[in-house]
Amino acid sequence: MLSRKGFAGTRLVDVAAHAELQAPAIYYYFKSREELIEEVMFVGISNIRAHVSEVLEALDPNTRPIDRIAAAVEAHLRYELSISDYTTAAIRNGGQMPEHLRERHESVRNKYGNEWQALYQAAKDAGELREDLDVRATRMLVMGALNWAAEWWNPKRGGSLTSLVRTAQSIVLHGIASPAALAGTVADTSSAPAPEKSSTKRVAAKSNTAKAVGRRSGTKTASAKKVAAKG
């Protein structure tokens, strides 16, 4: 819901209908529409940060910094576009959130950005990043391009997610890698955790929201699983 309609267009009555609940029931778990949306945004950015971190930690310790960037590009895109509706919603609506609702989301987003910054800095220190590039500008431009894919990519219009990932990796690496780094062999990141199937994705997404609700209300999460702002 939030992913499709945005912050301004998401109404509790629509969320309730989608979750097969009466609108007043949502107030049992959340005090307001804004609190519900803020929680979805927080869960979305937190989950993609954890996923990318998990993928990077699973790599061989000797993996080149530039290849770690390639792995992070794949992990980010796959999670954003095929695993988490919450992350898609968080990416699409980050700029629409009122200032007073951004604190938790911005805190995690900044930490996630710093982790990407460290990836680029490691590549620069290893001589694998082009010398003429500014590390922060590189990180911001690449992340902006990856996030924008949530706005235009649609598997129904042709082009597989794997093809998109490989294209993104090629553009990023050939744009930022030093000649010496390009002369090496770029690691095959296809061993990264595969996207969950759609049915599994829905269960996992609802589970995430249930856990979030449980943290706030302390109530049983069975009914809370239906309170999801997914498209």
From TrEMBL:
Highest taxon, organism lineage: Bacteria
Pfam families, alphabetized: TetR_C_24, TetR_N
Ranges annotated as DNA-binding: 11-30
Domain HTH tetR-type, residue spans: 1-48
InterPro entries according to UniProt: Homeodomain-like_sf, HTH-type_TetR-like_transc_reg, HTH_TetR, KstR2_TetR_C, Tet_transcr_reg_TetR-rel_C_sf
Statement: the UniProt record of this protein carries the keyword Transcription: yes
Name the UniProt record assigns to this protein: TetR/AcrR family transcriptional regulator
Organism this protein belongs to: Rhodococcus qingshengii JCM 15477
Coiled coil segments of this chain: none
Keyword vocabulary terms for this entry: DNA-binding, Plasmid, Transcription, Transcription regulation
Record-level Gene Ontology MF annotations: DNA-binding transcription factor activity; transcription cis-regulatory region binding
Residue ranges, annotated region (Disordered): 188-231
Biased composition (Low complexity): 219-231
